[in-house]
Structures are given as C-alpha cells and as structure tokens.
Amino acid sequence: MRLVVLGGGESGVGTAILGKEKGYDVFVSDFGKIKQRYKEVLINKGIEWEDEKHTESLILNADVVMKSPGIPEKAPIVKKLIEKGIPVISEIEFAAPFTKAVTIGITGSNGKTTTTMLTYHLLKSAGLNVGLGGNIGKSFAEQVAEDKYDSYVLELSSFQLDGIINYKPHIAIITNISPDHLDRYDYKYENYIDSKFRITMNQTEEDYLIYDADDEAISEWLQKNKTRAKLIPFSLTKTFEEGAFIKNNTMEALINQEEFTMETESIALEGKHNLKNAMAATSVAKLMKIRKATIRESLSNFQGVEHRLEKVLKIQNVQYINDSKATNVNATFFALDSMNTPTVWIVGGVDKGNDYNELMALVREKVKAVICLGVDNKKIIDAFGNVVDIMVEVNSMSDAVRMAQRITEKGDTVLLSPACASFDLFENYEDRGRQFKDAVHNL
C-alpha cells in the first residue's frame, strides 16, 4: 500500500511515521519548504520526501493520500488525485483506526482551543492517561504510533473534518459557528456549517454531541438534520433537564441523572464566552465520570491559553492584552465585549471576507482609538473611520505598540485582537502574538 503525504509539517510528518510503522510505502511531498527539524525526522526514519515541488509520477500512484489541513482542495495536485478517484483524507481519518483509545473531538469557529485545553486539563488532573492533539500540540498520528494513551482530546478544524470518511469521536463538541474561512467554502456559509457538523456524521446512539444551544447556526442545523448521538446542550440563557446552564450566578450541569454545581465567580477564566467553554468541558468531565471535587479544582486553577485574551503587562496603569488568536470577527466580538475600560484596539491582517458591522455597537461603546496593522486596511477604515476619534495605520508590531502607548491614558487597555489572519506580516498568529508581547516588554 502506497501512502503519499502532502505537506511536511506536524500532521504530515506524524502521519508518515505512523504509516511507515504500519508497513506502508510512504512518500512525503511539500510544495513549500520542509523545516529542518522535520527533514531530520524523515531522514532518521528512512522516509522518502521532497520539498518545493510536487512530482506527479510519485504522487498519482498512491493508494491513499493524507493532505495537511492547510492545503486547499482547489490545489491542482489535489484536484488530479480526486479526478483519479484516489482517497484524500486527513491525519485524523488515517490515524483513528490504529488506536483503541476513546477520542473527544472539539470543533467550532471560536473557543475550540480554550475548550480543548480546559478539557485536557480536567481529564489529566483527574489522573486519566490522556493525550492532546489535532490542531494543537503534537501530531495525533505520531502519538498513535507511540501508543501511550487511553484517550485523546482533539481540536478539529473544519479542514480536518472535510477529510474524514469513517472517523467518529465518542464525545463531540461544537463550541459555536460563525462565518470563517469562507474563502475555502466557495463563500457559502452553509458549506462551512455542514463541514463543522461532519464531526457527528458517524456517531451512534452510544456517542454524545455537546453543543451551544444559544447558537443560531447550530440550532437551525439540528432542526433540519438528524444525528444519532445523544444531545447535550449548554446555554447562558436557557435551562435543561439534561445539559449545562447558568442560573443565579451558578453553573449547573445535569448529566446522566447527576447534578454538578459551581459558583461562576470561582471559575478562573473570565468572560461570558469562557463560561460556555467551561460548561462544554465540564460536560465531558461528567461523561468521563470525573469526581466533582476534581472538576471544581481544575476549573478554578486553569490558567488559559497563550494568545487568547492573555494579560501581558500593566505599564503606567495601562493593561496590555494579547488576543492574537482572534483571527475572525466573532472572536474579536468576545474580546471587545469583555473590555471594561476605554480601549485602544489593534486590528487587521488578511481579511477572510469579514463583516465588521457586528462590532459596530461595541466599538462605539468601548474603543477610543483604532490602530490598523495590515497591508490593506481599507475595509477597516471604511467601517470605523467615522466611529472613533483616532485612526492610525502602521506596518510593524513595534510601531503599533509604541503608537498605542502614546494614545493611552491611565486606566485604559491596549487590545491586540486582529479579527484577521496574520499571513501578510507574520508567520502565523503565534508569531504575531509573540511580537506583540516582545514589543510591550520593550516599552
């Protein structure tokens, strides 16, 4: 069996390692450059590879192809594979049959990283032998090759879900759905929504789907479509006989005839959206039979995720917050919503078809200045030029931070929450967030 891996990054190299171990004839091909550390792994494992090209004769003879999530289906090589009827799958689909471990799959437009990390923290604190993978951390396929864990918490993007055929998580979570990545879905929101719901398509009556019952797109899909999984909703406004909700400043989770309660103010993560993430993670913990005391302790000591509303420093009574992970409008909505002081907002990057109108009321109420950090800021300037007093364009992070310091007064907040992808000026959102933190530390 010939396995061709497109993309020599974390998921690609992990898949190659697992494929080699399971007796496949493996070839890795990357149209870009493969990082040195990954090249060394491939050479050490005796896996053939190429970079900066796709040699068709070595690819179109595959029995199965694992495509890294970053490669669009419109890529010429992928189109040729599909035309030939060669299955093109994701890392998760390839690796899942090789493990007996229980998987918890988490998707959504926003909140999935925080929910994934929090769920992992809850299970690990309870002493479970649990791995973390998917879009985050170490490759799931490589961990399956090492075969160390009894369960996995996996963060799954819509691109990874597009590449599944038979994979099903025992517990699935959809944190929310808002327009994102529409450039990869023919600019059709319904295609993107369907993509997220692939997480539940193979689930049976023995499996669970945990979802945000306040989310319009999710509720509509569930009204029109069926899943066999047992539904466990969570909400900030409704109550359920089975599910999680907030009532009188208390989080309640009623699952499998058991009740769990915790005062919301004891939960370490701040903001309404984080209450949702906490309800989703608590629902998993209850399904995995974790003790109430452990759940309470874990929710009260969880430190949050880097680049997600991360408090960097307070300088001259101005708080600097790194929310570089906000790569779409919905994520930035949550960030602005949680601001309680006048805010200087650093925004911009590669626009994925953003509609800034939904931020309008929050910007009027909370934002005193907008600093545009992108190659093309026209859309942002058009949207907010008449709404805020100060509008500045910069093209480096250090300029953005220095400008913010000039504009702020005591008691203000400087918020990096770009609402866009980072690829015009940065390697990725982590690079953008680290540059922000470095610039703040250098003030």
Tell me the layout of helices and strands.
Elements: E1 2-6, H1 10-21, E2 25-30, H2 36-44, E3 48-51, H3 56-59, E4 64-67, H4 76-83, E5 88-89, H5 91-95, E6 102-107, H6 112-125, E7 130-134, H7 140-146, E8 151-155, H8 158-162, E9 171-174, H9 189-197, E10 208-212, H10 216-224, E11 230-235, E12 243-247, E13 250-255, E14 258-263, H11 272-287, H12 292-301, E15 310-315, E16 318-322, H13 329-337, E17 343-347, H14 360-366, E18 367-373, H15 378-384, E19 390-394, H16 397-407, E20 413-416, H17 429-441
Parallel strand pairs: 1-2, 1-4, 2-3, 4-5, 6-8, 6-9, 7-8, 9-10, 10-11, 11-12, 16-20, 17-18, 17-20, 18-19
Antiparallel strand pairs: 12-13, 13-14, 15-16
Helix pairs in contact: 1-7, 6-11, 6-12, 16-17
Pathway: Cell wall biogenesis; peptidoglycan biosynthesis
Family: Belongs to the MurCDEF family.
Keywords: ATP-binding, Cell cycle, Cell division, Cell shape, Cell wall biogenesis/degradation, Cytoplasm, Ligase, Nucleotide-binding, Peptidoglycan synthesis
As a whole number of angstroms, the C-alpha radius of gyration is 22 Å
Number of helices: 17
Shape: globular
Number of domains: 3
Instruction: Look at the structure and give the mean pLDDT.
Output: 94
Q: Outline the low-pLDDT stretches.
A: none
Structural class designation = alpha/beta
Strand content: 15-25%
Query: What's the number of extended β-strand segments?
Result: 20
Distance between the termini: 57 Å
CATH superfamily of the largest domain: Mur-like, catalytic domain
Oligomeric status? single chain
In the CATH scheme, what's the topology name of the largest domain?
Answer: UDP-N-acetylmuramoyl-L-alanine:D-glutamate ligase
Helix fraction? 25-40%
Main beta sheet, described? 9 strands, mixed
Shape-level CATH architecture of the largest domain: 3-Layer(aba) Sandwich
CATH top level of the largest domain is: Alpha Beta
With strands numbered from the N-terminus, the spatial order across the biggest sheet is 7-8-6-9-10-11-12-13-14
